[in-house]
Amino acid sequence: MRNISYLIRRAKFLDSRLIVALDLYTDTVDSKSLLIDRLDKLLEKLTNYVAAIKIGLPTILCLGIDELHELLHKYRDYYFIADMKISDVGHIDRILCRYADRMGFDAVISHAIIGLKNGLEVVVDEVHSKGGSIFTVCAMSHPGAEEILNTNFSKMLDISLKAGVDGFILPATQPKYIQLAREKIGKEKIVISPGVVHQGAEVGTAVKYGADFEIIGRGVYLADDPVKAAQTYASKLRWSI
Fold first, then answer.
1. DSSP one-letter code for 51
2. Which of 45, 85, 130, 189 is catalytic?
3. For residues 83 and 65, what is the distance between their CA atoms, to the nearest angstrom?
4. What is the DSSP-derived secondary structure letter of residue 21?
5. Is 85 a catalytic residue?
6. d(CA 146, CA 10)
């Protein structure tokens, strides 16, 4: 694992705040090799425009530990984020973090709603012991998030800061949470925002409100020309802006 400083150096070198989410999967075992080939080609072609790659559970479960390990280590220039949405008790969280490290990820995403004691404190301890970074989800974009999760935004932010996380996952579709977070955390922590393009947020909106990076998934990998799409988005998400 590598810490957040690597991500910042890469972003500055590329002059890009773009993170691409690769949540591709297949429903059949026979198609697994085709999926690996597709991911391989995407990673090869996007490297000049994308600061980091976020990979979620559908892809992790579909490929498996060994195949993903091989793929991630082939493209070590990227900063890889495991979007495992960790949200269990401490000893299980620790195991999941160790698997993330084994697969070759640099950072892990956890829910902050699990709390500090035997929750986030374990996640942070395990990931930091491996040299990696931890991001917590303190708000989400879907309607149901406003029922419970988002109503505890301030508490989750405080718990995350106390735990010593490296950054936050906050929705670009609800920039008020990005603003509120920035007012409390200043510039010392990283804010990464999903929900861009297919979920409705315009490219650049989250950065405008204080995010450091924007995550775009389907807007890239479902595009007719993913490389051109990534290049276009990256040009609107320059680090120097």
1. S
2. 85
3. 14
4. E
5. yes
6. 35
Per-residue pLDDT tens over the stretch 194-228: 988 877 779 999 999 999 999 999 999 999 999 99
Helix axes 32-46, 65-74, angle to 10 degrees: 20
pLDDT for 214: 95
The position carrying tokens 């597709």 is 38
Longest dimension (CA), the chain: 50
3 state SS of 203: coil
Residue from 86, 105, 107 nearest 192 by CA: 107
Joined together, the tokens standing for residue 61 give: 């479960």
Neighbour tally for 58: CB within 10 Å: 14
Contact assessment for residue 125 and residue 98, using Cβ atoms and an 8 Å cutoff: no
45: which 2 tokens? 């072609």
210 conformational bin, left if phi > 0, alpha if psi -120 to 50, beta if neither: left
Counted residue by residue, the chain has a size of: 241
Enumerate residues 6+ apart whose C-beta is below 8 A from 179. 209, 210
The span from the CA of 188 to the CA of 196, in Å, is 23
| Cα–Cα–Cα angle for 66, 69, 72, rounded to 5 degrees | 150
Is residue 27 scored above 90 in pLDDT?
A: no
For residues 48 and 234, give the distance between their C-alpha atoms in angstroms, rounded to a whole number: 10
